[in-house]
From TrEMBL:
<dbReference type="GO" id="GO:0006094">
    <property type="term" value="P:gluconeogenesis"/>
</dbReference>
<comment type="subunit">
    <text>Homodimer.</text>
</comment>
<dbReference type="Pfam" id="PF00121">
    <property type="entry name" value="TIM"/>
</dbReference>
<dbReference type="InterPro" id="IPR013785">
    <property type="entry name" value="Aldolase_TIM"/>
</dbReference>
<dbReference type="GO" id="GO:0006096">
    <property type="term" value="P:glycolytic process"/>
</dbReference>
<dbReference type="GO" id="GO:0019563">
    <property type="term" value="P:glycerol catabolic process"/>
</dbReference>
<dbReference type="GO" id="GO:0004807">
    <property type="term" value="F:triose-phosphate isomerase activity"/>
</dbReference>
<dbReference type="GO" id="GO:0046166">
    <property type="term" value="P:glyceraldehyde-3-phosphate biosynthetic process"/>
</dbReference>
<comment type="similarity">
    <text>Belongs to the triosephosphate isomerase family.</text>
</comment>
<dbReference type="InterPro" id="IPR035990">
    <property type="entry name" value="TIM_sf"/>
</dbReference>
<protein>
    <submittedName>
        <fullName>Triosephosphate isomerase</fullName>
    </submittedName>
</protein>
<dbReference type="InterPro" id="IPR000652">
    <property type="entry name" value="Triosephosphate_isomerase"/>
</dbReference>
<dbReference type="InterPro" id="IPR022896">
    <property type="entry name" value="TrioseP_Isoase_bac/euk"/>
</dbReference>
<comment type="pathway">
    <text>Carbohydrate biosynthesis.</text>
</comment>
<keyword id="KW-0413">Isomerase</keyword>
<dbReference type="GO" id="GO:0005829">
    <property type="term" value="C:cytosol"/>
</dbReference>
<dbReference type="InterPro" id="IPR020861">
    <property type="entry name" value="Triosephosphate_isomerase_AS"/>
</dbReference>
Length: 307
């Protein structure tokens, strides 16, 4: 097996480097081997043709952020409506609040609609906020929470985000729960610590993981054109799945989609999609172009290996 030589170099940018196998590295290796066995032995039959460590369906979200006009959004919806999308992918787009209704009313049912944020509890006297009830009222199924732009620009903290997630879930919305480290945190070797702390805040608040997709989005890769390498992303995704296994349950670790976000585009999605713990993408800039977003959705085909 070529795993010793292919596994260790994956721990290049974070806490571990592997000049030789010491105890902790052999432990990583053992975990890796056991995860390989999990892949080949305990997947449902359909997993046999798809290289995924999790058992969830490929998931691609388009986060339109604070972009667009009625005209550009109408054009984007029309491009998405005519795009040919692989069937075995959950596809979601998150328009700005003010266009949610327009998009929901004109977009094909093949694609679900998400909000980009939601209020922490029931709606009421909260000027400028949008409630989960209102998001549901428009027929939206998802909300993005914990996005780095809300953490680092607006100042939302882990506990507040956890509460928002719990409330949205309690009302039946799915949550795209974002986590990810800043460049200086990565450089200080704190990537796992930061991601685990953000995950723990979600885990402490939510009663169930049934309706949560985790988006790992390294902040240094968002909107910068500096995509994480497939190895860098895979390394964190494996760690996140292991964290879920140890701190929530093996079932949740297997079922929860862990998607990658940060400068994903039509050119780099296939290589990323091939990584077995990358269960899809959260796409910003490239989701504003219908054909390119369709290419990213269809990168699920890169995941499929010869049966
Ligand atoms: P990006 O954004 O694809 O433009 O880097 C991703 C995101 O913020 O979700």
């Amino acid at each position: 097996m070529a795993m010793v030589s292919t596994y260790c170099p994956q721990f290049s940018g974070l806490r571990r480097s592997c000049p030789k196998l010491d105890n902790s590295q052999s432990q990583c290796f053992v975990q890796h081997i056991s995860s390989q066995f999990r892949l080949s032995s305990s997947r449902k039959p359909c997993r046999a043709v798809v290289a995924m460590a999790g058992s969830g369906k490929f998931f691609v979200g388009g986060n339109w952020k604070c972009n667009g006009t009625k005209d550009s959004i109408t054009k984007l919806v029309s491009d998405l409506n005519s795009a040919k999308l692989e069937s075995d992918v959950d596809v979601v787009v998150a328009p700005p609040f003010v266009y949610l209704d327009l998009v929901k009313a004109s977009l094909t049912d093949r694609i679900e609609v998400s909000a980009q944020n939601s209020w922490v509890g029931k709606g009421g006297a909260f000027t400028g906020e949008i409630s989960v009830e209102q998001i549901k009222d428009l027929g939206c199924k998802w909300v993005i929470l914990g996005h780095s732009e809300r953490r680092h620009i607006i100042g939302e903290d882990d506990q507040f985000i956890g509460k928002k997630a719990a409330y949205a879930l309690s009302e039946g919305l799915g949550v795209i729960a974002c986590i990810g480290e800043l460049l200086e945190e990565r450089e200080a070797g704190k990537t796992f610590d930061v991601c685990f702390q953000q995950l723990k805040a979600f885990a402490d608040a939510v009663p169930s993981w049934d309706n949560i997709v985790i988006a790992y989005e390294p902040v240094w890769a968002i909107g910068t054109g500096k995509v994480a390498t497939p190895e860098q992303a895979q390394e964190v995704h494996v760690a996140v799945r292991d964290w879920l296994k140890k701190n929530v349950s093996e079932e949740v670790a297997s079922k929860t989609r862990i998607i990658y976000g940060g400068s994903v585009n039509g050119g780099n999605c296939a290589e990323l999609a091939k990584k077995e713990d990358i269960d899809g993408f959260l796409v910003g800039g490239a989701s504003l172009k219908g054909p390119e977003f369709a290419t990213i959705v269809n990168s699920v085909t890169a995941k499929k290996v010869a049966a």
